[in-house]
């Protein structure tokens, strides 16, 4: 395959025609003949562009032959296409008129070549510098929360996961994030880290988002969509830019108080001569994270009688029967959501024997006292993030650009998987070399990361057990409760005497001993107890290329073809991913190739149709390969564009989903590969689905029936999706913009981690005594899963620069449940579960499905970037429906309430120093909400910033 790329490169170079360079020059003004700075000038059909200087003038060298067409755009003005000929290329005069709605934009993501966003054959969203400037969000990445259909799950101030079209996840491995063409995902953990290691805010030029299956051109894992973030080219965006931002969050937090934060970014780019340019970026954020401080009694199916049932119908679930008791002084089983070490299903609970001396405690479950998350962390929520980039660019003959870049990200954050995990000092390096022309690109890059973290919940449990075992604690609790006849709260106080207090020297020493010791090693001074730290210092190398054959085919048909090779070198030391039998680390090889063809056709006088077909083949060495075809078409009638597509995609299991193993004796994730089953003890001590265990304990399953349903490690395979989509997009009279879509998706071989219980002593009687560990085992189920949805986005120009925008998205997930033999599963009333909502209690009763997405959400935005020549403002209202959430080992199963957020910003331009002052805030009414169970609750974030742009140009 490497030889293929070398030969392709040589053939591409041989086809390059060196043409004489032409220098385009001109000026851009408004309708009052005032110069406009910062307008973007781009040559249609190429990647060549520049922006106007403070006097409105520009120059743009190109090797394209005249005549050609340039596009001119600027926030608040109508985009204009201008023909450039031999008689005007040295003095191109453009006058732009004010317009609030801008939709005639070029995009790259749908077909990997430039095209008009209105005529794209699939749904696509684009955010550019204009939208970033006008958004109340504090960063370009955060501005995604205003895009229709996007759900951001906030785990940390700097770590947010993008979710689209159902199956929301804190670690979404069904969504691909590309940064300047490089995969943003962790090589070992297999999910994108959001903006933890992304591009500096000042260097983001645009973000393009494709909801839905995108594997045909971008390979595995793009089941739910693709996000392409592109940085600014130093030939186009030059000079010194500086952004200073300060703000406050955690306003009104009881016993915590408001906390400030600061964010500083600097960018410098310079062109030297006609061929060489470079840029340097750095950004530093420091502050206090949003705190996970939900201490209500945890709602989880691990609770006895969690579902409300109808005994007359076989015990079918009719809703949630569990009623939280948030008072640990009266609740034997208090288990706080963000309190750890008190978990009823992760080592924090004790069940008194059936023959206990006091009948009040016989078979009674009691949880010990836990520690709050902020207490275990011990850092008072401090968060930091550093991002840096250095790149050099060189223009070769034939309008080819060569570049070499280094991208760096570093910070601390919390992520939520089966447990909450703290990464105190994450570091990632990406180095990329690229050769790009108007009709091809060749790219090679590597991702090298250092990701070490420790499990917050397991560490809290370990601190408790180091002080006193759960059995000894329960004995003292029982004695106080029975002999002294005290309350639950007083019995807890008695059993807690001498407990390590948060922040004390003893507490910190024990926590650090566990947190700084790998889960494969014994903590200092012990030969039986291991640490809670794990690492993923894995690396990935990726080589890819593409060629556009359209010009070689005399523009008769658009044809592109490409391919890629990936190599993953895992490095976890056995702390997160299993080692081979010889003790060495696993590596993974993948390769893929694709081709796409499209043809624009004229049908009659007013109609044009452009059908497109694409197909791709990908192969991972541990799973079967597969083809992902896509067929689409867009029909344009004047300003009206109708699109339709059939798309397919598949997802390879991530390295952790293949090989993950839990620490010895502890709960955690287990990979679906047979290579993980042995180290997890599943071959000698089987595990059982949590719902089956509950049925067994309740007497609804016999011992033989339960044993027949034990987890059977089989060969894991790819998860697949097929999607039909219809859409409509139009811009009517430069005042109304409409974008609507409908989609229907079907998943097969759905891959997810389900909760299994593994008995402590290998005996089924362990379950009645609460003696088991909870494993999150990844496997392919036989269910048929469907997602249907539609969305509508509109922008309307009200005049005088005002625009009102809105978008609404609706999506529903349904499932046909099947057992391991492929038979349809009945609910407890004996009715087959066929295409029922996954949030319905009788479906959730049979196991988790992880749809984790609101059915409805909408945004309403009122904006005017030109209230005056200097003032601009935006007001945004966001609403998200309630959501049935199923999450992790120590999270739970719960209806999360609906939430709203009001965001606003006011900006003021200071032209004399090329700066913009911005006062903004998100959730300005400070109504705290959580986007996932156990995640940090998000309140108001208020900031003021000043941005100096392109000084010293």
UniProtKB/TrEMBL annotation:
**Cross-referenced Gene3D superfamilies:** Carboxypeptidase-like, regulatory domain, TonB-dependent receptor, beta-barrel domain, TonB-dependent receptor, plug domain
Query: Which InterPro entries does the protein's record reference?
Result: Beta-barrel_TonB, Beta-barrel_TonB_sf, CarboxyPept-like_regulatory, Plug_dom, Plug_dom_sf, TonB-dep_rcpt-like
Report the SUPFAM superfamilies cross-referenced here: Carboxypeptidase regulatory domain-like (SSF49464), Porins (SSF56935)
What are the UniProt keywords, alphabetically? Cell outer membrane, Membrane, Receptor, Signal, TonB box, Transmembrane, Transmembrane beta strand, Transport
Where in this chain does the record put each TonB-dependent receptor plug domain?
118-225
What membrane topology is annotated for this entry? Answer: Multi-pass membrane protein
Where does it live in the cell? Cell outer membrane
Spans through the membrane: none
Q: What is the name of the protein in this document?
A: TonB-dependent receptor domain-containing protein
Which organism's genome codes for this protein? Spirosoma flavum
